[in-house]
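Continuing the batch. This is chain 6 of the set; chains 1 through 5 are on the previous pages. Same settings as before, nothing changed between runs. Recording input and output for traceability.
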Amino acid sequence: MKNKELRKTAKALMAGDKGLLAMDESTETCNKRFIAAGIPTTIEYRRAYRELIVTTPDLGKCLSGAILFDETIYQATKDGVLFIDILKDAGIIPGIKVDEGTVDLANFPGEKVTLGLDNLRARLTKYYELGARFAKWRAVIKIDKGIPTRGSIETNMQDLARYAALCQEAGIVPIVEPEVLMDGDHSIKKCFKVTEKVLHTLFKQLALQRVDLRGLILKPNMVLPGNESEKQVSVDKVAKATVTCLLKTVPATVPGIAFLSGGQSPELATAHLNAMHVKYDKKMPWALTFSFSRAIQQPALDIWKGKDENVKAAQKLLFERASLDNIARRGKYTTDMEKEVTAS
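Output for chain 6:
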């Protein structure tokens, strides 16, 4: 019975041209972005910002799901309406980030491991009762001299698989996020090789943990050169490398793939997603969409600046940014559309 529910939820999250909004920033990450925008780092401003997001008119036309943070899932509007209820009323499936961030991996200098497996079963039960129907866990893989190591990859992918198994036990669709960071000066070829190894290892571990692939969603990085690399490549080359890597590693039984933006600009993240659909839409056995955070939120945050009088303008830009990603999922996006957003 749970498997049937999981598959139904996963299918709904991948439906049409919609995508996911990752509004699951930790308090620390949210505060960093507030400081950069000149916004006070208080719980009330964080609440107000998240109210701005969830009350954006017509957001359900763009999004099938929204990933919340533990603080956010309990929050409400100034009028006392729970955010999670607003999302459900808009036809947006609520999700929850359940990992607890990364720490240094013992004996592996420069590499990280994600915390949060302790008491995860109990937390998932609580989140399901609150209305969350999917969850997210992020593992971080860095490319540098001598890393990532096999030990780091194996540890992080095993933890992702254990998390996924616990989610499915609770009736919650797991989003598995093995992020190969774009930080560094590595080439796109190196990113391809590492991403391929990471995904092969992930699906091996998922099989060992008996995870139902039809009831999960993959949230990977795109295959990109490092952001400090002197050899940046075209949008089409990123699309080709990314889809080729996914076709080599992701089973056709997986219902959908939702990309993280990973620090790309909003325009580039959208353009890359669009190019994949233009060139490879008929070759892909799974749905391919977005699960962006900064690439949707940052322009709106820069306009809002914590001021009530800027809420409507920020919401308009948030909706327009998400709408462009919908268009990219259909393979109909053009860079000229960015001019219209800038002008408005």
